[in-house]
Amino acid sequence: APLVGVLALQGGFHEHKVMLARVGAKVTEVRQPKDLTAALHALVIPGGESTTMAHLARHLDLLQPLREFVASGRPVMGTCAGLIFLAKDVDGQKEGGQELVGGLDVTVHRNHFGSQVDSFQTTLTASFAPDRQIEAVFIRAPAITRVGHGVSILSSLDKKVVGLDPDGGQLAVAVQQANLLGVAFHPELTTDDSWHKYFMEMILSSLKK
Ligand code: GLN
């Protein structure tokens, strides 16, 4: 079975471990640079609080090793704060704002859904399963407001359905760029393992290369 590391500095890493085990991965926690070994086939960056995660990663000298892991081409999934951490830019942030691992060519807007719908649950379709409704839990979630070339949108939300805009329109909430999968919501907090299964397929196909 592939060995998947879960960044375990703070946030919802435990639920990811459970989900990854359920889809057939061997799982290990990443807490310091020495945990990011060559033996890891993939990495998950969980939700939580992206500025806290960045401070901890800086303090533990994990930022550079994380960037190297991303650049190594091995699959990395970032969920919610993990997506923010993987993004190239954060909207509305000045020079020298929060530190990011980067690598995923998107801009994200933190806490996009504001206080009124701060947390909500909905169903989404994904491009890899267009005829299935997948449960999605959003908790002070970011939105993806810019998508670079080479980034594909796997899932979007209808702005009308979530009360963001009566005129509707689509908002990207899950994207992929080569080895990087970024998801604005919390797939580990539902019983639907579709996103982890999809990530597992990315891992298995990366192992064939
Ligand atoms: N609002 C958090 C942030 O900006 C993300 C929330 C989450 O991961 N559930 O980092």
TrEMBL record:
Biological process (GO), any one: pyridoxal phosphate biosynthetic process
Record GO terms (molecular function): glutaminase activity; lyase activity
Organism: Prymnesium parvum (Toxic golden alga)
Enzyme Commission designation: 3.5.1.2
Name of the featured protein: glutaminase
Enzyme class: hydrolase
Reaction(s) this enzyme catalyzes, per UniProt: L-glutamine + H2O = L-glutamate + NH4(+)
Active site per the UniProt annotation: C80 (nucleophile), H186 (charge relay system), E188 (charge relay system)
One of the Pfam families matching this protein, by short name: SNO
GO cellular component, one term: cytosol
Similarity section: Belongs to the glutaminase PdxT/SNO family.
PANTHER family associated with the record: PYRIDOXAL 5'-PHOSPHATE SYNTHASE SUBUNIT SNO (PTHR31559), PYRIDOXAL 5'-PHOSPHATE SYNTHASE SUBUNIT SNO1-RELATED (PTHR31559:SF0)
Binding positions (L-glutamine): G48, E49, S50, R110, I139, R140
Entry keywords, A to Z: Glutamine amidotransferase, Hydrolase, Lyase, Pyridoxal phosphate
